[in-house]
């Protein structure tokens, strides 16, 4: 096995540098930033939801810049075609031969802005890329660059002109996080920063520096995937996921992909905190953002106004966590 460039201590320090660079553009909301970094380290795809103007796109652009490599942004609209994302085969008039025109999905980090403004057919164009890390054009498969990650943003469904994501596609997002309004102090910092010698009304990522290259990011991802996970932690994650399939409040619970996602994210979270082992608290802290978007609530739950996050919090109170797990175990 190839020797990794990082150990837990050096990787954690490098990720702290990434945090600091992101903070130059994206003010506050430390938990949201950490969730985004956990998804990146775990090698998954991230869905960020929030009303317009909360900096969702700014966050993913800042992350993309800190990790180097190539990043591209697609503004999804109701008239966007699948080929506008994946590319197509076209005739070159100069040579008379068919050539492959690769779309913006051929990148390291694809920023899919307002993904729920595109109709289902166009949303599905990302499905193969997110699951198989490849795109099929005219019957031929084309591998995507490594690493590859989709960072998608969306507005809440109650806004006009949006389309709910299919359940199968939501399941391909490792984590779904909510961008909330900033605190008063954070908002004052933003306003002050924008008005300091700049023209316009947008925060910039010009001051954000690249901290990692793609090979270093791959090493950190491999390190996270090698962290120790006690069998009792695995059992805990599986019991939580299985419980979502057994509660009457849920019509369709999370599948085994949910259990896998919990462990992947818990490892990444442990590394972010400078640990080489996973704690039950890592699982608890991530359960809602990893599993909530994978649940389909029953009609009764929706009528009562229940949310998936509430149901998961209730389950966590009932399911006993393993005790006595520490770094010596």
Could you characterize the architecture of this molecule?
With 329 residues, this protein is an alpha/beta fold. The protein is built from 14 helices and eleven strands. A five-stranded parallel sheet has the order 2-5-8-1-9. A two-stranded antiparallel ribbon has the order 3-4. It has a two-stranded antiparallel sheet with strand order 6-7. A hairpin with a 4-residue loop joins strand 3 and strand 4. Helix 2 packs across helix 11, helix 10 packs parallel to helix 12 and helix 11 crosses helix 12. The two termini are 25 Å apart.
**Secondary-structure-derived class:** alpha/beta
| Whole-number mean pLDDT | 86
Q: Identify the strand order in the major beta sheet.
A: 2-5-8-1-9
Largest sheet report? 5 strands, parallel
Low-pLDDT runs of 5+ residues are none
Topology:
Layout: H1 8-23, H2 30-41, E1 46-49, H3 56-66, E2 71-75, H4 83-86, E3 87-92, E4 97-102, E5 109-113, H5 120-123, H6 127-132, E6 134-137, E7 140-143, E8 149-154, H7 167-170, E9 175-178, H8 184-194, H9 214-225, H10 231-244, E10 250-252, H11 256-272, H12 280-291, E11 296-297, H13 299-303, H14 308-318
Parallel strand pairs: 1-8, 1-9, 2-5, 5-8
Antiparallel strand pairs: 3-4, 6-7, 10-11
Short description:
The chain is an alpha/beta fold. The chain contains 14 helices and eleven strands. β3 (about 85-90) and β4 (about 95-100) form a beta hairpin.
């Amino acid at each position: 096995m190839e020797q990794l460039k990082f150990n837990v201590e050096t990787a954690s320090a490098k990720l702290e540098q990434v945090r600091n660079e992101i903070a130059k553009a994206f003010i506050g909301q430390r938990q949201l930033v950490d969730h985004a970094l956990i998804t990146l380290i775990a090698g998954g795809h991230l869905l960020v939801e929030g009303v317009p103007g909360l900096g969702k796109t700014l966050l993913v652009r800042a992350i993309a810049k800190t990790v180097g490599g190539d990043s591209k942004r697609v503004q999804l609209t109701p008239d966007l075609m699948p080929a506008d994302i994946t590319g197509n085969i076209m005739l070159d008039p100069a040579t008379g031969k068919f050539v492959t025109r690769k779309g913006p999905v051929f990148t390291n980090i694809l920023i899919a802005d307002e993904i729920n403004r595109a109709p289902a057919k166009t949303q599905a164009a990302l499905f193969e890329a997110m699951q198989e890390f490849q795109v099929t054009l005219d019957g031929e498969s084309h591998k995507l660059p490594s690493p590859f990650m989709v960072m998608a943003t969306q507005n809440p469904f109650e806004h006009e002109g949006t389309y709910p994501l299919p359940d199968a596609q939501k399941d391909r997002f490792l984590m779904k996080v909510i961008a909330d309004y900033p605190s008063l102090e954070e908002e004052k910092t933003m306003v002050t920063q924008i008005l300091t010698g700049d023209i316009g009304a947008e925060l910039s990522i010009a001051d954000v520096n690249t901290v990692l290259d793609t090979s270093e990011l791959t090493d950190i991802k491999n390190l996270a995937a090698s962290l120790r996970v006690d069998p009792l932690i695995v059992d805990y994650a599986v019991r939580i996921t299985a419980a979502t399939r057994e509660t009457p409040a849920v019509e369709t619970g999370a599948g085994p992909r949910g259990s896998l996602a919990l462990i992947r994210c818990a490892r990444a979270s442990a590394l972010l905190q400078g640990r080489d082992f996973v704690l039950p608290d890592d699982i608890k802290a991530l359960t809602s953002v990893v599993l909530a978007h994978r649940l389909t609530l029953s009609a009764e739950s929706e009528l009562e106004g229940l949310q998936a996050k509430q149901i998961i919090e209730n389950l966590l109170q009932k399911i006993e966590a393993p005790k006595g797990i520490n770094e010596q175990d």
